[in-house]
Design brief:
This protein has helices at residues 2-8, 60-63, 70-76, 98-113, 128-140, 192-198, 247-256, and strands at 26-28, 31-36, 47-53, 79-83, 116-126, 146-150, 165-171, 205-211, 217-223, 232-237. It is an alpha/beta fold. The chain has a ten-stranded mixed sheet, sandwiched between helices. It is found in: Secreted.
Length: 269
């Protein structure tokens, strides 16, 4: 559905009164979203998209100014879309959530304003927004290139109709969106849903250690031998509930380099 809408949409930047960027919201019915363009964009080249769902009691105005989110997209040449949740939150628990249709509408409206690269539509979120990103990817997986999820999941017994390239990061000491430890202390349980949906039956490769700073260090597990052909990646750290420095930037770097399975050698500790 999204692919068809994007194909038919007029891929031209908005002008005049329709122009909205940064903290100026793009109206969409009774709701709105925010846009941040990448640095140095020529106004013509089709843009990869990261649609990021904000955390609880936040709004898109924060996302388009957030160094770890918009800072990453600006430098990577990615168009950032930041929907505004109704009541500053998301209805991610319901498989029939109105926010699924809203997310689709945001993508379709953005495609009327910008030339969108339909093969590079990434969906992200943090905390409640991460759970919403899971919900959106679960409902619209056929039109989502990759899920970048930070510190928030759905129940692992949810049913999702289409596989997705998944990248999830979670802190073992998270007590806000508690780390979803599996039976017997299984630390790989946070992505059990996507391993099942993608048909990843084997053991993962890992852990591979990598770090952005001394405090932002991760252990990566990768399931690449999946029936769907779409891998699942899980990055774990020992800290709590936050957006890790450099994590989104690293995922975009890998995705834009044709989805390499592992990290550049310079990042492997």
């Amino acid at each position: 559905m999204i692919a068809l809408v994007l194909l038919l949409a007029t891929a031209l930047p908005a002008t005049g009164d329709e122009r909205c960027v940064g903290e100026i919201p793009c109206p969409l019915g009774e709701r709105s979203y925010h846009v941040k363009e990448p640095d140095g964009w020529d106004g013509v080249t089709p843009l990869p998209v990261l649609m990021h769902f904000h955390g609880w009691q936040r709004q898109g105005t924060l996302i388009v100014k957030h160094g770890r989110i918009s800072g990453a997209t600006r430098r990577a040449g990615v168009l950032l879309l930041a929907p505004n949740g109704r009541g500053r939150t998301w209805t991610f628990r319901d498989a029939g959530s109105e926010d699924i249709a809203f997310g689709r509408a945001v993508l379709a409206d953005a495609a009327k304003r910008y030339p969108i690269d339909r093969d590079r539509i990434y969906v992200s979120g943090y905390s409640y927004g991460s759970a919403m990103a899971w919900r959106f990817a679960c409902a619209a997986g056929a039109d989502v290139t990759a899920l970048l999820a930070i510190s928030g999941t759905l129940r692992q017994n949810e049913e999702c109709p289409a596989p997705v390239d998944v990248r999830h990061v979670h802190g073992l000491s998270d007590t806000v969106m508690d780390f979803p430890m599996g039976p017997g202390g299984d630390e790989l349980f946070p992505v059990a849903l996507w391993r099942r949906v993608n048909g990843c039956a084997g053991a993962p490769v890992g852990p591979r250690h990598w770090a952005v700073t001394q405090h932002d260090a991760f252990r990566r597990f990768v399931w690449s031998d999946c029936a769907s052909g779409k891998p699942v990646r899980l990055d774990l750290h020992d800290r709590g509930h936050f957006i890790p420095r450099g994590w989104i930037a690293q995922q975009l770097e890998e995705l834009l380099a044709q989805g390499s399975l592992f990290l550049p050698q310079s990042r492997i500790a």
